[in-house]
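Forgive a beginner's question, but might I ask you for the amino acids of a protein and the tokens describing how it folds?
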Amino acid sequence: MGPMMILGRAFWILAWVATTQEPSDPSAQDRHIKRWIADWSSEDLELRDRATRELEQIGESVRGSLEAVLRDNTPGAEVQARAKSLLEKLDQRQRDLEARRMGRIVFIRQQMDKTRDVWTIDFHGEHETQLTDTARNWTPIWSPDGMKIAFVSREQDNIDQIQIMNADGSHRISLSQNFATETGPCWSPDGESLSFISTRTGGMGIYIMRADGSGVRPLTEGSVYTAYPYSRASWSPSGTELVFSSSTDGRTGIYTMNSDGSGLRRLTNLESEHTGDSNPTWSPDGKRIAFLSRKTLSVMDVEGGSIEPLVELNYYASPPTWSPDGKYLAYSFRARLHVLEVQHRTVRAITQGNLELDSEPSWGPAGLPVESIPQGD
């Protein structure tokens, strides 16, 4: 295949990627583009995944061809410049595809004036978006469908209250209607309920409510929580259990209980070195729990065994959060957000933390089409 044919094919691929309207030419090529657009925009996750895989496969083929053009001294400078430009566009599109597949991360950014607002960022540390511009906020978390974010805000009477908003920051409503401190919201897997921490009865107890704020009921008796304000009770993917940290036995450890509050069970051994454990979160496949232990980010199986330290932090870190595919953990450390590749234990910072303090990340679901995010009320 000659250089001009390669460039022609590459231009077709980029046109395919960039097309925002249905093509009118009934050629086989345009019918392929039309079908791909439909798959890419579909609400069906399998169709969107198929479209992503197709583009990645074709992109790799085109990348190799373009790199061959750049290595060949025969084409003129203009052809090589066009090949380089196409390669850069293709690389950026591949990054965007990967970021979309990995889901966005919502987090808190604290400014020099101590204001704490909700932001989002992608897997590569790009496309930062500020969602709030009020008061002080904590512990944001995505809904399972990626359409809403629950978080804690301190706006009136210096009391922390749970709020929810659309994923674009619009339509904020408060779910807390009392004078108790309430924090640590966490969506149930079906998106119908939220667990949270509250001082309604004096101590920090775990409660559950419907996603509209109604039907509040306690899951624990008395005070079980000491890791305020950053911890939460994390749901299992099946929705049948919650994992949380508690000092019920005198030293902070990891516990599970059924979603109705029964079956309380300690996972970390009170007599072992793993005491002072906190901030647990369930993996997407339901097989592991990530947590912080004496400034170490660790994982264990759901029975509390096979504890495996992943990275030594030597400094306070905010709770970890799993990527949708379970291959990565995001956490904050020394004012920056970091992403850890669990299998190989490689770490990279995705924010700079120069004049801000970035913390409390929560990973959203994969593949949410931008056009499906609510706009306004």
